[in-house]
Structure formats: C-alpha cells, structure tokens
Amino acid sequence: MSFSCFPTLHAVRQWSNVPFLTVPLARAHGKSFAHRSELRQAKRIVVKLGSAVVTRGDECGLALGRLASIVEQVAMLQNQGREMMIVTSGAVAFGKQRLRHEILLSQSVRQALHSGQNQLKDMSLPVLEARACAAAGQSGLMALYEAMFTQYSTCTAQILVTNLDFHDDQKRRNLNSTLHELLRMNIVPIINTNDAVVPPPEPNSDLQGVISIKDNDSLAARLAVEMRADLLIALSDVEGLYDSPPGTDDAKLLDTFYPGDQQSITYGTKSRVGIGGMEAKVCVQAHCVKAALWALQGGTSVVIANGTHPKVTGHVITDIVEGKKVGTFFSEVKPAGPTVEQQTDMARTAGRTLASLLPEQRSEIIYALADLLTEKREEILSANKKDLEFAINSGRMPASMLKRLSLSPSKLNSLAIGLRQIAVSSQDSVGRVLRRTRVANNLDLEQITVPIGVLLVIFESRPDCLPQVSALAIASGNALLLKGGKEAANTNRILHELAQEALSVHNVRDAIQLVSTREEVEDLCRLEKMIDLIIPRGSSQLVRDIQRAAKGIPVLGHSEGICHVYVDHEASIDKVLKIVRDSKCDYPAACNAMETLLVHRDVLRTPLFDQIIDMLRTEQVKIHAGPRFASYLTFSPSEVKSLRTEYGDLECCIEVVDSMQEAVDHIHKYGSSHTDVIITENEETAEQFLQLVDSACVFWNASSRFADGYRFGLGAEVGISTARIHARGPVGLEGLLTTKWVLRGDGQTAADFSEQGSMKFLHENLPVAQPLTGQRTSN
C-alpha cells in the first residue's frame, strides 16, 4: 500500500532504508501517545506552520486572518497551562511583499521623471533573491506575531537557527537551555531557520542519530525531540496521508498511520511557497512524513493536518489537542482489531448479502438470536453482574441509569418474545411492492421496499437495546454499527457475540459490528460517506450532541421527551388517577413519562384535584408550579424555572389552562412533539385534541407510557422519532426501510414519447397483490 499527500511525483522509499529516520541520540527513547484520545494529556506542544498556511494565495504577503486564528488557538492552549512552541515559515513571503513595494515605488518615481506616467504600466519586477527577502521579512514577521499574541496577554520570543547550530554540541545545549527558560517564564518561543544566512544543503548530510535541518518540517521534528515535546502538530495545505494518490477515486484519508506496518510511502510535490530553509525541496511532503516519523521514533506524537481550510482553521489545533479526528495521527501502537472504517466496510458488504437473503432466512437468524438469549442466559447475567458491580463501586451512576443497566431473567425472556415477534413481521418487509404502474405498453414501474444501508446506533447503559436493534436491522436487511456505553462493556460484548453467532447461520456474521475502539461519538458522526443513518438511544444531552455533530448524516430520534397529560373538566376521577400515576411514576426516567400536568381551571378546588395532589405526594413526586397555577395558591410549591423541562425523575410541573384549545397551544409552545395525552369523557373534545395536537403520539384516556414499539406491537423499536419526515413515533421495522424504483421495459426511449414519437403514456395503476413475472414473492 502506498501513502501520499499529493497526487504527483511518486518516490517510493522503504521504511528501514531511509537514513533520515535514524534513531535520535539527543533524547532517550520516550513513549508517544498510542491513541488520539490521549492527546488531551499533551503538556508541551510544537506547532509547525508551513509556508502555505502562513502566506496568501498569491505567495506575496501573509494570510492575516488565518494567522490570527492560529495565534488565538495557541494562546488559549498556553493559557490552559500548556507549553507551546511555534516553528514558522513566512519570512520570505513577508519580505517579498516589502521589497516588491519598495521596488515598485522606486521604479515609479524614476519612470515618472524620465518617461511619463504612460510607461508605468510596462514596469516589470526583477527576480527577488530569497535570502534578501528573508532578511527583509524576519523583523516584520516577528513584530506581527508579537502584536497578535499581545491581544491575549501572551509574550513571545524569536529564535533563529541554522543546521550548523545542531551540529555543535555547545550551541545545542545553549538552545535547549534558552527554550526551557522561555517556557518556564510562560513565553511562547517562535522559531525559524535563519534563511538570510543558511548555506546550500549538502547531499545526504544526515548524521548518525540526528536529523539535518533541511526545512521547517525537519526543524520542528528536531526541536520536538530535543525538547521532549509530547506532541508535534504539522500544519500545511494538505489534509494528511492518503492510502493512494488524493484525487483518485479510491483515495482515502488515513486517520492513523502505523509506520511499522507499511512497506512504502508515496510522496507528493513540493509546497507552492517557501524555500524550505533555503534548501532545495525535491518533495516537501516527503520531508514532512520523514520528519514526522523521525519525531515519532524520538517519543513525540505527531499529527499532520490542513491549516488552510477556511471552515476548520479556526479550531484545527484545539480539535487535535482534544483528540478529535483531524488529519493523520502517527502511532507506533497498532490496534488488535479492525478500525471503525474497516468495520463499516465489512458491515456494508455483509449487509448487502443479508438484504439478498430470503425473508424466511432472515427470520431464522432472528429466531436463532432469540433462542441464544435463553440458552446463554447465565453467561449474559454474569457479564451484566460485572458491569453493575463496577458501576456501583464507581459511585458515579444514578439509580435510574443503574436500573437501565441491569438485566434480569424476566427482561431476557421479554427480549426473546419481542425478537420472535420481529421474526414473524419480517416475512414481508424487504422487497415488498408498494406501488405498480403501467407507464406504457411493455413498460412497468414498481416501487419496492429496500434497506436504508448502514445504521449507526449509539446507546447508553441500555444493553437490552443491542439485541432489539440487532433483530430489527436483520429483519430490515440493514448493516449495523453499534457503539455502546463503556459502563455496559461486558454485557454488550457477549450480546454482540451472540448476534454474530446467529448471523453465522447464513454466513453474514460481519453485518453487525460493535465499535470497541476509543472512537469518540463526534468522530463517528463524521463518517458521512460510510454511514446512512444515526440512531441515538440515551439521554437528551447525548441526542442533542449527536444532532449537532452529524451534519452530513440524518439522525433519527428526539432530543427531549417533554410529555403532557391534560385533565379536562369532563374527565373521570378514576381514569385521571390511574393515568397520571402511570404516566409519571411507572418509569420516571423514560422519555415517554409525563413531565407536565395540565389541568382545566374548573378542576381546581374540586375533590378530583385534591386527590391528584394526594396521589402525587404519596408517590413522592416533587411538584413544581407553573406561573398560572402559582397565582392561585397562597403557599405554592417551588415555581417552575422553565415550562420546557424534562425532569426524568419523580418530579413534574402542574399548570392551569382555561380550555382544551389553550392546552393544545401550551403543548405546541413548550412540548417536544413526543407524546401528549387528554383525559376526558367528552368524545368531541377528545377528537379535536387528537386532531389538533402536532406530536408523534397523541392519546385519549391512555397513559403516555404506551408510546413504545413493543406496546404498539412492533416487536421492538430503535427509538422514538419526533422528526417530520420518514419515520415518526416509535420506530420499528418499517422505519428502517426506504424504497427504490424498478422499471422493466422493452427498448423504449424518452424520445418515443415526444410529440414526434410513436408511443403514448398510460400511467395505469396496477394491483400490488401479485408481483410481476420474475419478482420474488414474499410470504
């Protein structure tokens, strides 16, 4: 496999044969970070700014906006207590701008005196010598950095070095001492090669155990190792390393590069600007990669990333330090299993095979999984016990989450029953004909159901979610990527093994993958080219975070479950007490639990209202008064801070409304379009409520807790959606399907149906009960 940063000039080198990558002697072997998530621990950081990052597109002058955002990030990290160093390019470009200005000014004066203004447009600039440009630009570049950092109360110091400074032991010790002293005083050193005096390069000048300073890439690597830096961030105008030349169809950006596992590296062309420390760059990206590998051997972690992209420049450095997937991370530790990208590819391939199975074959897999839940019950409960003990001993998990985490024999039995319901319903799911149209003679069109593709389900402390979602994915022919909470790691692991064992019945084991690597949820949400739908199962905060992060992937779910129960003035006392108690107290942490009780004003100061309050107090429900309800009371309970609150506990808000219509208006203003209930004996009022309330689930004289896929007879659900398109409410098997159009013709063309054509459209609706000839039937 080859690795490239640019698609041109390929020069293949063997990892073991590159003299540039000799082990550094200046520092004893350190230990670089093995995973991106560990980068948060980086204390000492070197940021290398390539010429393309610092300079404008016209290669004359600095990219001030880009530079300002980089300075802001470095200053922020410095103020967090980290030790930041910058290795910068830009002196040549800055000097070129100054010298061009001076030359143009001088030429314009002379030509104005001798030739008149008409000759100004014919002026040509001489080729500027790079060393002169560097000499003219160094002071201005440093003054700019100093002015920018001053805005953040951060001091800077300039250090100019040459390759010879690293060949002299005394000079190296002096440089090391100076840098340490500056860092001790909380000053940001800004380092650059002294391009005004540096001599031409010597071929193959790398010494044993050291790296020659050929450019700012090698300078940054050398300094990072000399200073025992934890992290080197190399910013240029490329995204990172690719598995083939970028721009080709199959090129993929490498998230992590493991040097010892690769045989060759393909390098690209030199950068568009800069002079590489006044030394010729046969290929800047070769230097960049080599410098990164050398630093990695010296114990410094490295990330190569794009510092010029307008959408990410403002947070690229901080994102890297936070462990987000930006650029290519160099690691010497290769994970034992496949990467999440490889898992997704495996799942998609196996998922397509799963979708092509006969309906009864998919049902057999689900039946097998249901049987395994019963047969392997003791193993499952044993793994779950380990998770529970760890969670309890940690003391950080609330009782409601512990309840979700816990499995029991009865829960496993219920799961098995639900899975068998799914197996029955899956018989006519994939490939079902929804519509048939005879477009013209011998031209028939069908709309049929098909799987969505690859689903990513992220769930917290709910191990019972894994077999439910797995069964629904199998029934709908979808590939599945699962990311469970670490608090249920042992339980999730054995449940996933059982799911794969069931899938093996028809050789589609890889269709369901459990992500067990240290992938951050936000990083998973960026795989828009690999994942077709994200389904979050967890807290409202988790759902909101995923909805924000998944900008290119649809998210099916709801961020809040603010459910209302409205007690009409014509409600039955018995029904009110039963429904309100169940809606709030049956499972307060559920998303379909009541959070706000709306009461018609005529119910106040009646025995019914007194009984409601007594019941809630008996159940130890903490009551918060809405503004109108509080106004009716002399001594009211705590007034609600917000009418748009999901308590998720034995708490609720009570508010007063004047009518059913006002209750509907309140629900639309403060609700989350999840589940809302009316309790009344007036059928006309109830029907109006059912029609007017714009929520995923609207009930009459029934508990809000019925908003559940199992209770709806869906067998199980992947979640409850409050979206306006595709699936809404409890999402079961049907919500995991989409459609495609199949057209069967006999050589027809669009031209045949034009004004001059010989054919006419029929657009005749055909019955869907019988499939067309050759179409597989569904049982």
UniProtKB/TrEMBL annotation:
Domain of life, source organism: Eukaryota
Keyword Transmembrane helix belongs to the record: no
Its EC number(s): 2.7.2.11, 1.2.1.41
Gene Ontology terms, MF aspect: ATP binding; glutamate 5-kinase activity; glutamate-5-semialdehyde dehydrogenase activity
Alphabetized UniProt keyword annotations: Amino-acid biosynthesis, ATP-binding, Kinase, Mitochondrion, Multifunctional enzyme, NADP, Nucleotide-binding, Oxidoreductase, Proline biosynthesis, Transferase
Cellular component aspect of the GO annotation: mitochondrial matrix
Domain Aldehyde dehydrogenase: 339-606
InterPro entries: AceGlu_kinase-like_sf, Ald_DH/histidinol_DH, Ald_DH_C, Ald_DH_N, Aldehyde_DH_dom, Asp/Glu/Uridylate_kinase, G-glutamylP_reductase_CS, G5K_ProBA
GO process annotations (BP): L-proline biosynthetic process
UniProt domain Aspartate/glutamate/uridylate kinase: residue ranges: 43-306
Pathway entry: Amino-acid biosynthesis; L-proline biosynthesis; L-glutamate 5-semialdehyde from L-glutamate: step 1/2; Amino-acid biosynthesis; L-proline biosynthesis; L-glutamate 5-semialdehyde from L-glutamate: step 2/2
Keyword DNA-binding: no
Alphabetical list of Gene3D superfamilies matching this protein: Acetylglutamate kinase-like (3.40.1160.10), Aldehyde Dehydrogenase, Chain A, domain 1 (3.40.605.10), Aldehyde Dehydrogenase, Chain A, domain 2 (3.40.309.10)
Main localization, broad class: mitochondrion
Reaction(s) catalysed by this chain's protein: L-glutamate + ATP = L-glutamyl 5-phosphate + ADP; L-glutamate 5-semialdehyde + phosphate + NADP(+) = L-glutamyl 5-phosphate + NADPH + H(+)
Membrane-spanning residues: none
Cell compartment(s), UniProt: Mitochondrion matrix
Subunit structure, interactors included: Can form homodimers/multimers.
Record family assignment: In the C-terminal section; belongs to the gamma-glutamyl phosphate reductase family.
Function (record text): Bifunctional enzyme that converts glutamate to glutamate 5-semialdehyde, an intermediate in the biosynthesis of proline, ornithine and arginine.
Protein name: Delta-1-pyrroline-5-carboxylate synthase
Designated gene of the protein: AP1G2
